[in-house]
Fold this protein.
Amino acid sequence: MKAQAQPLAGWVGTAAAVALGIVTIVLLQASGSSYWQGIFITLGLFIILTLALNLANGFTGVFSLGHIGFMALGAYISGILTLSVEDKDSLLNLPSWLAGVHLDFTVGDFPLGFLLATLIAGILVALVALVVGAVLMRLSGHFVAVATLGFLVIVRVILINADDFTRGARTFSNVTPYTDLWWVFGWLLVAVYVIWRIKYSAFGRAMFAQREDIVGANSVGIVIMQPRLLAFVLSAFFTAVAGALWGHYITSFSPNAFYFDLTFRVITMLVVGGMGSVSGSIVGPVVIIAVDEVLKRFENSTQLYGISGMALATLFLLVILFRQSGLMGSREFNLRRLGEGIIQVLSVGGRTIPSQGSATSDK
């Protein structure tokens, strides 16, 4: 009876977590505080980036340093596709087939063109990752880390030299600010759901098996290349989506924004939260951004600038030295237990509602 009630408790816990997110967004919008809205949008984007990097790095053990290159491609592709006719006129040498694409339309108040541009950017970047990953995913250890870092450098050089498309090293501006809390929260839910399902699928088990012992996994017939490539391609897709959301949030950016600083910031969030844990990919960004915001306020009040950077670096070193598995390790949030607690609260006079009786009577 208890086993039959566990799926119900899991759904109740998941629904409660989603409802909490919706309530938070509604309260933030009602507050009218652009400061707090900006913090939560930034937090959501970093969670998506960390989830995507965790899929490639934490699940398979293939450490990629080039994922921010996919973010850059996502931002530029979606930005170009959604530019209006007037703004595209400033890109004088843009090919005619691309100059005629204007995904800046809406259906009512819904920016359908932005959704299409985001999906197109994600799919195109995933195809790039498929080609790149077909070569790089055959490597392991520090070899793949160096190779993916080279990919990041190549993307930056291409963006700087593709002046007809990206305005080169100059700022790519006039991007329509479509991104808001609802867009970020919606894509965050999609990323969490997809990556969570992958973790507990046959592909996910193969990823973790070859991460722990690639020779042992290979010896028992586990395919190495396909799970790695799947993780790399899907990770690139969600990274590109985060890039599109980020580009349509800040509206102006240049290739210099997508480089080592952002790369190591996301890696820090992943390591602090816990590699291989979906929940850790949420905890890591929350901790880092919270600490960073507190320390920035301390800097402004004391004028001791640079304290936040040193403190975050110290936190990173402490985690590496004393908690190598991260704050969450391999653990996950137990939404089923949350659901069981909610079901128990809904009990009336010692009797549970009929469809949930087994969940509480067995406790």
Confidence is low (pLDDT under 50) at residues 355-363. The longest helix spans residues 2-31. Residues 66 and 152 are 5 Å apart (CA to CA). The chain is about 70% helix and 0% strand.
